[in-house]
Amino acid sequence: MWSMFPILKEYVKGAAASSLNEARLCYEEIGVPAHTYSPVYKLSEFESILHYSSHITFNSLTQYNKYSQLLSGFSGKISTGLRINPEFPK
After folding, report:
1. Strands (E), the chain
2. What is the DSSP letter of 35?
3. 84 vs 90: CA distance, rounded Å
4. Distance between CA 26 and CA 18 in Å, rounded?
5. According to the model, what pLDDT value does residue 90 have?
6. Residue 63: pLDDT above 90?
7. pLDDT of 19-53, one tens digit each?
8. Mean residue pLDDT across the chain
9. What's the chain's Rg over C-alpha atoms?
10. Do the Cβ atoms of 30 and 52 come closer than 8 Å?
11. Which is nearest to 29 in space by CA: 52, 51, 45, 49?
């Protein structure tokens, strides 16, 4: 509901996204960078996601390692995290 964005913008301090388009929507329409989490990031979209995000959560260490070069080369400030599944057997 696009008509709700101006009202929503008055009350929220942040927004979450699970794709490039959602991160861009948060940034452009709500005026805040997104906390972005996706089970799978597309390499072709990841640099754009960085520009629209304040936080990026990864699904695995492998995923983090795959994108760590792009993260370290990014000039903006990005907080990174790792999703932990508490039910994962040891």
Report:
1. 15-17, 34-37, 53-58, 79-82
2. E
3. 12
4. 11
5. 65
6. yes
7. 999 999 999 988 899 999 999 999 999 999 999 99
8. 91
9. 14
10. no
11. 52
